[in-house]
Write a structure and sequence with these properties.
Blueprint: H1 8-21, H2 32-42, H3 48-57, H4 59-67, H5 77-84, H6 90-93, H7 97-112, H8 114-117, H9 123-131, H10 138-143, H11 154-160, H12 164-184, E1 193-195, E2 201-203, H13 219-239, H14 243-248, H15 250-264, H16 274-285, H17 290-302, H18 309-317, H19 324-347, H20 350-356, H21 367-371, H22 377-384, H23 387-407, E3 417-419, E4 422-424, H24 437-452
Antiparallel strand pairs: 1-2, 3-4
């Protein structure tokens, strides 16, 4: 885009005046846009409409740019024009984010500094400052240097000066702001932190040096959890705004942009309709030519030439049957589920295992996926739990597998058959007994996978 000869403040003043003369709803929209463009042209801005058109097509890219630290709606004239037409995006909110961040940092320092108030931590002020943290400013806040002359962090100050329920309340607020920030950008963090049914948060399976399933709010865990989420968001945003990063892993960049496009559209798990144009434009902005790849795919398909992994991946993004966007999210959840079950069996955690190994949760539709990596689950269950408990878990697994086989018209009479509410082997032995359960489970799983390729 060509240089604009007027500054951001004048552009914002023109936008405010146009809006005030129009519907006065704090954004230039509807008929106001053409008036806005005309007035900018009168000031020598010849490409205002081009900038607006570029944003309308490519909102994903621009909103990712504005989310990155240091980029605000008044940084450049182009940014000021874009922010003027969309006050619902993160663009406008970033005009004041820097001031908000500095205010929060200064407020936290004063609240925890005993020399400022002569009476220790000012809990009222500290709570007020922490409650000012939200999904729009939390990443920039955590990216901003807290102490210029030391490595001390805001999190360390909060943890060091609070305790008990009050500390938990503050930390939970910060964590939830981070989770919301990741959700808003469709960045998957389910391997870092997990929300429980009781509204608590536990450490995910993908956090190095932290115990999986432990309390994420615990003071010993919290800063590592926060940094892991912050870094995931920073790295993901870099991936979809930086050509060099995107070139390193174009498939990951396309997946994140596809998730964002689908989330902004009909959320059906693949790209269609207007989502396609936004996805292509955002990819093109970081040097990924989707149209070029599609041409190559068509040429290879016509010549019956094998597609590359990246080309196959792109095809799936547009294929309603692949449902690849939703599948990628489900895979992360499945990995967490498997890790949770493995830990519960290892520790003999009956309460946790009861949530997964019951007939409502473990069904014919998910049983293969959940137990596919367990070769000795029957044996492990009997080793970790009482015979009665292990028998009930084995029964739930075998029931789901047998139902799956029936549903797929697979004959498993040579492995197991029902006997009332129990199961027996072809020889009439108790299939749920510790001597037979593991073999029956593995044989059922193998035969089903062999027959349907699941």
């Amino acid at each position: 885009m060509s240089d604009i000869k007027i500054d951001s403040k004048l552009i914002q003043d023109i936008a405010k005046k146009v809006d005030k003369e129009g519907n006065n709803n704090k954004v230039v929209d509807g008929n106001e846009v053409s008036i806005f463009v005309d007035r900018l042209e009168a000031q020598g801005v010849s490409n205002a409409q081009q900038i607006i058109d570029s944003y309308n097509v490519n909102q994903l890219y621009y909103e990712n740019i504005f989310t990155k630290k240091g980029t605000k709606s008044n940084d450049t004239p182009e940014n000021a024009i874009i922010a003027s037409i969309n006050n619902k995006s993160v663009l406008n909110s970033n005009t004041k984010t820097r001031n908000d961040v500095n205010m929060i940092i200064d407020g936290v320092k004063k609240a925890v500094d005993p020399w400022m108030f002569w009476c220790g931590t000012d809990e009222k002020k500290l709570k007020q400052m922490v409650n000012s943290i939200n999904k729009d400013n939390v990443v920039e806040l955590l990216n901003t240097k807290y102490e210029e002359d030391s490595n001390n962090t805001m999190i360390q100050d909060i943890i060091g000066d609070t305790s008990g329920d009050f500390q938990d309340e503050l930390l939970k607020h910060i964590l939830e702001a981070l989770i919301q920030a990741a959700d808003a950008k469709q960045i998957d963090i389910s391997d870092i932190v997990v929300s429980t049914e009781k509204g608590q948060y536990t450490v995910g399976a993908g956090v190095k040096d932290l115990e999986f399933g432990s309390d994420a709010i615990d003071s010993d865990n919290f800063e590592k959890i926060v940094n892991a989420i912050k870094n995931r968001i920073n790295n993901s945003l870099a991936l979809v705004t930086d050509e060099n990063k995107a070139e390193e892993d174009p498939q990951a960049a396309m997946m994140l942009l596809a998730r964002q496009a689908d989330a902004a559209g009909d959320q059906n798990g693949y790209l269609n309709g207007d989502e396609i144009g936004k996805f292509k434009a955002a990819c093109n902005q970081i040097g990924i030519s989707v149209n070029g790849m599609i041409e190559t795919i068509n040429e290879k398909t016509n010549k019956d030439v094998e597609l590359s992994d990246q080309e196959e991946f792109l095809e799936k993004l547009f294929d309603s049957k692949s449902n690849i966007i939703a599948t990628a999210n489900q895979q992360r959840v499945l990995e967490h589920t498997n890790a949770t079950i493995a830990k519960a069996i290892e520790e003999g955690d009956e309460e946790t295992l009861n949530k997964y190994f019951n007939k409502e949760t473990l069904t014919k539709d998910n049983v293969i996926s959940i137990i596919k990596d367990y070769e000795n689950i029957g044996t492990d269950l009997y080793d970790a739990f009482s015979d009665d408990e292990a028998r009930e878990y084995a029964k739930v697994i075998i029931t789901a597998l047998y139902t799956k086989a029936e549903n797929e018209n697979i004959d498993v009479a040579d492995i197991v058959r029902p006997s009332g509410e129990e199961f027996v082997t072809p020889e009439g032995e108790d299939a749920l007994d510790s001597e037979y359960a593991n073999e029956v489970i593995n044989d059922l799983k193998s035969k089903i996978k062999e027959e349907i390729g699941d």
